[in-house]
Each structure stands twice: as structure tokens, then as C-alpha cells.
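Assess this one:
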Amino acid sequence: MAPTPGPELSTARREHIMRELRTHGTVAVGALAAQLGVSAMTVRRDVNALAAKGLLVRVHGGAALPE
């Protein structure tokens, strides 16, 4: 049985999401999922967690930096 992914993986994904946002201004969940090699649901969970902290704003199909 494979080990369960630890919090360091979610931290790395969330840092990647924020880097992409700072570079492009907006990101699409599907594109992030492909880049990170995870499901769209995993990216949506990360986006929701970052939105709860006020670091980004959820938009249809992705995320944007808050204004």
C-alpha cells in the first residue's frame, strides 16, 4: 500500500497555484490539474482553502487574485 500524501504535497500545490496566479492573474482548474498531475477536485479543494484565507477569489472554472 502506498503512503498517504502528507501536508507538504498540498502546501506545494497551493504554492504552485499562487505562483501561477501572480504570473498570469487568473488560472483555470483544468490547466492546474494537468500541470500538477492531480484531479480537478483536488485543485478545487486547494482553491477553496486559499479562498477561505482571502488569498484568491474563486471564479467560474478557476481562480483570480483579489482586487
In short: The mean pLDDT is 92. The radius of gyration is 12 Å. Strands lie at 26-28, 57-59, 62-64. DSSP finds three helices and three strands in the chain.
